[in-house]
Amino acid sequence: MSVTELLPSLRKLSRADKLRVMQFLVQELAQEEGLLQTAQSYAVWSPFEAHDAARTLLAVLEDERSVNAGR
């Protein structure tokens, strides 16, 4: 089946099924390029409990606000 034959069927899928297809294709590409290994877990960074990052962002925003206030 060619891509041009497949596209109309993909358009008919539900949102959830489209996301599953995307996940499948991304996993396939990552495995082909050696970026991911099957049956292995990977750490994912989360902004929760990132207090240093929050302080840094707040300082940058306050600096920007003071620069803009002086204009």
Overall description:
This protein is mostly helical and 71 residues long. The protein has one domain. Helix content is 65%, strand content 0%. The chain is elongated, with a radius of gyration of 22 Å. 0% of the residues are buried.
Nutshell version of this structure?
The chain has 71 residues and is mostly helical. Helices cover 65% and strands 0% of the residues. The termini are far apart.
Task: List the main descriptive attributes of the protein structure presented here.
single chain, elongated, 0% strand, 3 helices, mainly alpha, 71 residues
Layout of helices and strands:
Elements: H1 3-11, H2 15-32, H3 51-69
Mean of all residue-level pLDDT scores = 89
Number of strands: 0
Helices, by number, come to: 3
Structural class: mainly alpha
Distance N terminus to C terminus? 61 Å
Mass-distribution shape: elongated
Runs in which pLDDT lies below 50 for 5 or more consecutive residues are: none
- Main sheet characteristics: none
- Tally of individual domains: 1
Q: State the order of secondary-structure elements, H for helix, E for strand.
A: HHH
